[in-house]
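Chain particulars:
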Amino acid sequence: MIKKNINPWIICIISASCFFYAFAQLNLINSLSDALITEWHLSKYQLENLSSCYLYAVAIAFFPCGYLLDKFSVRKLLTIAIFFSGVLTLGFALAQNYQTAVMIRLSLGGLHALIFLGCLRIAVKSVPENRSALAVGLSITIGLLGGLFVQVCFPFALLFMSWRYLMLIFSSIGFFIWVLNFKYTNIALLNENKQVSERFFSWFLALLKVVSCFQNWLYAIYICLMNLPMMILGALWGDWYLKTHENVTNLQASIIISMIYLGMILGSPAVGWLADTLNRRKLLMLIGAVVSLMIIMVINYVKVLDVSYLILLFLTLGILASVQNLGYVLIAKNNAKNLSSTATSFAAVIIMLGSALLQLIFTLSIKTYPNQFGFNLTNLELLIISFAISTSIALCVKD
């Protein structure tokens, strides 16, 4: 029997475990890249496609998922999504070719959209409004633990087992999270008995209202650009960049990249608490963008950095990148309550499509394959430009 008086913060944590699993799915290609290249003889473009197809699927699914979350039980949709994520992970472990893997990754991306929006909706709606930034930060922190988990644990696990056996274990984690949410997640306060009374035309009008708001575009682009260190270095090319440009070992590269996730894990609740305390979200967004720009310039233009310096720089970059979470809070704050899921969906489409496009641009800048995926010294200038644009956007957004 599910307790009706379960603490809303416990609800946030349990539901965010789904985000943990989805975020791990997003980032696992970086950890499995060597094994997948060897087994399926992938080119650099195929590897990039295996990663970016997930993002395209997320972007495509966000609008319908936002509509579903506005009309149906959040709890039921979340538990269905995490169950099928476990099933598809099992399918990925058994996939015999690249084409099957791409189809599975596309399906997982669609489920990620539902999980992400569901977790954010629970975080914003189940706690007092003056604690919403902290709740969003906490949920995203738990999600980021998924990225840290695959970056740190998978390389070590691959020393002792095949990637297929590792994925079988990973699928069992998904089923455990499904049981946890099915049994304990109670979000009756979110109005579980909604009636599907509005027509699709009404939803389309709401979407037009969201899209016509210029501030929603600014929030989305800001989040997308501040998220690039994780999407480019963390999710796909980080290990290869560090090994070729900074001359570090596999283990050192894994540790350095994991610092982005650790930084965001530490920074997300801290930034959320600070934003709620100071009530100055715009200022924090501006500071995060400016200092991130300075750090990425050091990483890019200082030719050889000591491993300890790289660890510190990537950790700080992750902490600063967590200010992107404030964009989600401002989206929810500056749109009508009945448009919150649709507005978040719209922003997420821009974020995911932008990330996939910039992943592709970064991949095209790589000179050679398979000769160590050689990098130009100017590759990270893409991130420099992105942080410069983020700084400009932070000056224009409404607090």
About this structure: Residues 58 and 113 are 5 Å apart (CA to CA). The chain has 15 helices and no strands. The first helix runs from residue 8 to 40.
